[in-house]
Design brief:
The protein has 14 helices and 18 strands. The strands form three sheets. Strands 7, 8, 9, 10, 11, 12, 14, 15, 16 and 18 form a ten-stranded mixed beta sheet that branches. Strands 3-2-1-4-5-6 form a six-stranded parallel beta sheet, with helices on both faces. With 438 residues, the protein is an alpha/beta fold. The protein folds into three domains: 156 residues, NAD(P)-binding Rossmann-like Domain (Rossmann fold, 3-Layer(aba) Sandwich); 156 residues, Dihydrodipicolinate Reductase, domain 2 (2-Layer Sandwich), CATH 3.30.360; 85 residues, ACT domain (Alpha-Beta Plaits), CATH 3.30.70. Helix 4 links the parallel strand 4 and strand 5.
Length: 438
Amino acid sequence: MSQINVGIIGFGTVGAGAFEVLTTNREIIANRVGAEVVVTKIADLDIESDRGIPVMPPKAILTVDAMEVIHDPKIHVVVELMGGLEKAKEFILKAMENGKHVVTANKALLAEYGPEIYRAAERHGVALAFEASVGGGIPIVGALKHGLSGNRIRTCIGILNGTSNYILTKMTEEGLPFSKVVQEAVTLGYAEDPPTLDVDGTDAAHKLSIIISIAFGSPVSFKDIFREGIGAVTPDDIRFAEEFGYSIKLLAIAKDLGDRLEARVHAAMIPKDHILANVDEAFNAIYIEGDFVGPNLYYGLGAGRRPTASAVVSDIIGIARQIRSGTKGMPPPLAHVRSPAQEIVIQPIEDLVTPYYFRFSALDTPGVLSKIAGILADHKISISSVIQKGRKSGGPVPIVMLTHEARESAAQKAISLIDELDVVADKTVLIRVEGSRQ
């Protein structure tokens, strides 16, 4: 086959970027595939606005009707870049019914409806590729499907949301409160207005569910993944973390526990000498440990037109190579021909065992520390380090503690009792510690 035809549904930021890559690097791509890869149709509700790319597509290939792409018999690969859920799912399933291979960057769609879409791809014998759904331009999906396919994945720890990482970086560097940095991020275009899905952990949980599904061979619902955001983190917490030798990051964590899986997204303290502690601004990074390969790190821009478009085009090239070689059966979407014998069981967050950071707002009166320590001891939580600030005109002062490993359920029960003390002025802040320095 001398030409592979591509149809794009959604000509926004990423769609325009994908078209730019395919046209700018057309000759390079043709040499690598052994055939021309050509965009022959693009569908979008707005086909008039300038997209800010060097060369706009000819008007003859533009349409406002996505079904023109899906039903075009000459198109081999349909690229869904419109976003959203229901309509995007409808278009993808219809494209598969029509024998089209599909590329998507839609992480929320795969997190919500992954099993249905994966089954449809296998049923219709078409490829489904989604490199751009996790980590922008970082080739983590390909690494898990191919480069690390001979390994049992033990651990995955990722900074998967650039907006949250940018916010925490600015809070760390400039000592600004969360609300002020969020507004700055929106103004600069780093964040949506409001950036709810970014800062509450949902976006990272979407991506973690996709990583887990590939790494362990069975789809998991992102709703089963514990998630917390970064809204409760203050400049004080960042400063105290630094005194203890830690940085605070929004982490997506998955660990193989044998009979079950640890899967969680939340703000966490990591040692400043950990490689992830130095991932700043809007960059993403994913740290993976395999049983044979050992530790791996994947780092790069996690969003943006050009990095995400690069990932989309890598999927198009991969499918184009398979088409050209005459491959009859396409690899399954999760790269597992046989699913695990048992479904993945996610460990309840209550069973998590980890060190903790506590910040108590307590009145500076005699015996306060002993009361707090007594309740912690009653729940088998031992203290590793303490920072206690001096008197503040009779008002509350922070008491900050790092603990040794404790169970989440015990930590939550202890905090609820401590918050009821008449010497405690505000709700306790809890941050989990990953990779303790102890």
